[in-house]
Amino acid sequence: MTERGAQIADATERELLSFRVGGQEYCVDIMSVREIRGWTRPTPVPRSELWIRGVINLRGTVLPIVDLAGRLGIAVEDASERNVIIVVHVRRQTVGLLVDAVSDILAIPESEMRPQPDVTSNTNETFIKALTIIDDRMLRVLDLEAVLPDSTRDAA
Prior knowledge:
Helix content: 10-25%
Number of helices: 4
Number of strands: 10
CATH class: Mainly Beta
Largest sheet: 5 strands, mixed
Strand content: over 45%
Radius of gyration: 17 Å
Shape: globular
Oligomer: single chain
Structural class: mainly beta
């Protein structure tokens, strides 16, 4: 393959960060990930959504922590030292996602991404952008814009 052909092939791949939530595997586009942190107990925020664990101080910035299991409708467990916070940036907001563990960074060809079958009961809350199979494991690619509500829209 020529050098230009290799660049074109690389352009059709997406790098994804894979992680586990509630015994299931998910992933997000690596370009939205800012950092991965160990578990820090957040300060609860009164009258927030049930899936918002609270906020933490991230180098002088107040960072909301979203319990991804709760947001996805998976049974929520008590967080422990084994949990991880994935700091992501979506739209104009930075948020921490509480997950069970980070698994891997994967380079997946676009051609191996499959659309999610239309099996959800609430079409307004489709959090899965695509599905892919890696080593006989089904990975769900999250649509972070759907998972994380637009704070500017919600404030209006």
